[in-house]
Write a structure and sequence with these properties.
Blueprint: H1 5-22, H2 27-49, H3 69-100, H4 109-116, H5 119-127, H6 131-135
Length: 174
C-alpha cells in the first residue's frame, strides 16, 4: 500500500491544530477546532482506504481490484456527525452571544473553590468516608427513600396476575 506522506503530514497537522483550538475558552475556537478534527478524521479514513479500485457492486471484477466500502461509509458517517455537532455548537455560540455578548466560557464560583482547595483539604474529605458507606450498593439505602418500588401481584389485593407461565391452563388439550 502506497500512501502519500503529504496526506499523513497534513492529517497530523490538522489533528494537532484541532486539539489545540479545542482547548481554548472561546466557543468559536472550539468550533473551529472541532471542524479541523472532523476534517482530519475524514483525511485519516481516506488514507486508510488505500488504493482506489472498482466499486464492489460493479460487475464481475476481481476481489483484489475492488475498493473497500467500509472507509467510505465511515467517512459519510463522520461528515454527518461533524455537521450535527457543528450546528449544535453554533447554536450554543449564538445563545452565549445573546446572553452575555461574549462567547468565552468563564469560571463560576464552584470552579474557583475547587481549584483553590489544597491537598490537605482533599485528604480530609477522603477521611470523611466511613466503612458503612462502602457496603451500600446504591445511594438510596432506606426503603422509604428508594425512587423505585417493585410491587408484586401478591402485594396488591384484588390484582389478578395474568402473566404467562410454563404451566398449562386448566382445561387445555394435552
Amino acid at each position: 500500500m502506497d500512501v502519500s506522506l503529504t496526506l499523513i503530514v497534513i492529517m497530523a497537522v490538522l489533528f494537532a491544530a484541532g486539539v489545540y483550538a479545542m482547548l481554548e475558552r472561546s466557543l468559536t475556537r472550539v468550533l473551529i477546532g472541532f471542524l479541523l478534527l472532523g476534517n482530519a478524521a475524514n483525511l485519516f479514513l481516506l488514507v486508510v482506504m488505500g488504493q482506489p479500485g472498482t466499486a464492489p457492486f460493479f460487475g464481475e471484477a476481481d476481489p483484489e481490484q475492488m475498493s473497500d466500502p467500509l472507509p467510505q461509509a465511515l467517512t459519510l458517517t463522520a461528515i454527518v456527525i461533524t455537521f450535527a455537532v457543528s450546528a449544535f455548537l453554533l447554536a450554543l455560540i449564538y445563545r452565549s452571544w445573546q446572553l452575555g455578548q461574549a462567547d468565552t466560557v468563564e469560571d463560576d464560583a464552584e470552579d474557583v473553590a475547587v481549584r483553590e482547595r489544597s491537598a490537605v483539604d482533599e485528604d480530609s474529605m477522603d477521611d470523611e468516608v466511613s466503612d458503612d458507606d462502602d457496603d451500600a450498593t446504591t445511594d438510596f439505602v432506606g426503603v422509604e427513600t428508594a425512587p423505585i418500588t417493585v410491587l408484586h401481584a401478591k402485594d396488591v389485593p384484588g390484582l389478578r396476575d395474568d402473566a404467562p407461565t410454563d404451566r398449562p391452563h386448566r382445561g387445555a388439550d394435552r
